[in-house]
Amino acid sequence: MTDREVRAVAPLTAPPDAEVPAPGSKSVTNRALLCAALATGTSTLTGALFADDTAAMVGALRDLGVAVDTDESAARMVVHGVGAAIGDGTGRATVDARQSGTTSRFVLPAAALTATPVVVDGSAQLRARPFGPLLEALVELGASVRPLDRPGYLPVEVAGPLTAREVTIPGHLSSQFLSGLMLAAPLLPAGLAVRVATPLVSVPYVRMTGRVMAAFGAGADVTETLVSVPAGAYSATEYPVEPDASAASYLFAAAALTGGRITVPGFGADPLQGDVAFVDLLAKMGAQVERGADEITVRGTGTLHGIDVDMADISDTAQTLAAVAVYADSPTRVRGIGFIRGKETDRIAAVVTELRRAGIDATEDEDGFTIHPGPPRPTTFQTYDDHRMAMSLALLGLRSPGIEIADPGCVAKTFPTYFEVLDSLR
Ligand SMILES: O=C(O)C1=C[C@@H](OP(=O)(O)O)[C@@H](O)[C@H](O)C1
Ligand SMILES: C=C(OP(=O)(O)O)C(=O)O
């Protein structure tokens, strides 16, 4: 990473009025890649995301013996699925999930489908994130799990098979544990029922998991307290990936806080991603939002009001909202997101620290933050190797002078072309 690099973001000289494509969805790409790997036959993903998190999933699948052909210029990935034999015949595969929560949490249960031992590891950042509930669930389901460092964290060696048909996990830390179990579940001998013992966060991602599985021919019955997946199989398919709604949040926010208009194409009538609901919050703040049949448009009106909102369903857009809140005419309080302290960094502490660095009155709450609007002063923002810190704080530069972003390269995790796209608004 480029630790000492800093990128200046100069204010726009005129409000943007543009259609701006967003890259493919990280969450959908990584689910579709794994479903395709667990299918028999060849699947093609179009509109796929090419970024560090999806490179992590592609690398993991290859390490587990799955051939994946990629064509970045065509945004296409072709996966030669191996069914339940994933990881078989590799001896003792080692998977590097890099910084990717989805890759690591989705691959672990799949790697435990067979008796071949698989080591899952990741960056120092990923090694600091929680895995305990998922590892405990795998043990309950019959896997052997050997921590190679601290119990409950990566790196870990897992070996299957998974034999039980029921397990209980907590829901309040991360939905990815549940999604990971669901994705492997059709290939368990008797399917799987997962009970969720504590209130589930990031619920739309679990529904997304069920819908991507369905597109690959597998069933899942999803409620917030119980998910049931019958035994079955995945079938290979042609799969179009929708644009990334979390990435699009920065573009919509840019329109809202500059008084411009930005349309992001490619969201159908019923998008898979909960994060499209970010535009409803912009509408509550005073922006005009139109959801068309195939695109979403946000128009800034020049006025933004603070809101009080629970973002437990769409927490990846909480930092984006913090950036918009700086320009509102009253305070904004975000609640329900205590669990984002366990993401790429402690995102509550990080966003509050950085806004305060710019002279904004921001305060940390246990489960969120409060932002009192005001003009930010010229600041070099630290980004904590968190792509969403960099992408959110850069938005302030579109309106206020003297904004710089440290380590801008960290956006490669999900949106490698982010700063070029921001520059295209000029
Ligand atoms: O399942 C997914 O694709 C994701 C779920 C969310 O994580 P949590 O469930 O840990 O909140 C989200 O923050 C992450 O970027 C992607
Ligand atoms: C939390 C994120 O990613 P992940 O958990 O997949 O690493 C994110 O993209 O904001």
Relevant terms:
transferase; binds phosphoenolpyruvate; 24% strand; UDP-n-acetylglucosamine1-carboxyvinyl-transferase, Chain; amino-acid biosynthesis; 2 domains; 426 residues
Walk me through this protein's architecture:
- One of its GO terms (molecular function) is 3-phosphoshikimate 1-carboxyvinyltransferase activity.
- The protein has helices spanning 26-38, 52-63, 101-111, 124-127, 132-140, 176-184, 203-215, 245-258, 278-285, 318-325, 347-357, 387-397, 418-423, and strands spanning 6-9, 17-19, 39-46, 67-71, 76-82, 93-96, 118-121, 144-147, 156-159, 166-169, 192-196, 221-222, 226-229, 234-235, 238-240, 261-265, 288-291, 295-299, 308-310, 332-335, 361-365, 368-372, 379-381, 403-406.
- It is α/β, with parallel strands linked by helices.
- The protein has 2 domains: 6-23 and 244-424, Alpha-beta prism (UDP-n-acetylglucosamine1-carboxyvinyl-transferase, Chain); 26-240, Enolpyruvate transferase domain (UDP-n-acetylglucosamine1-carboxyvinyl-transferase, Chain, Alpha-beta prism).
- Strands 3, 4, 5, 14 and 15 form a 5-stranded mixed β-sheet that branches. It has a 4-stranded mixed β-sheet with strand order 2-16-18-17, with helices on one face.
- Strand 10 (166-169), helix 6 (176-184) and strand 11 form a beta-alpha-beta unit.
- The radius of gyration is 21 Å and the shape is globular.
- The protein starts with 5 loop residues before the first strand and ends with a helix.
- It binds shikimate-3-phosphate and phosphoenolpyruvate (PEP).
- Phosphoenolpyruvate binds next to helix 3.
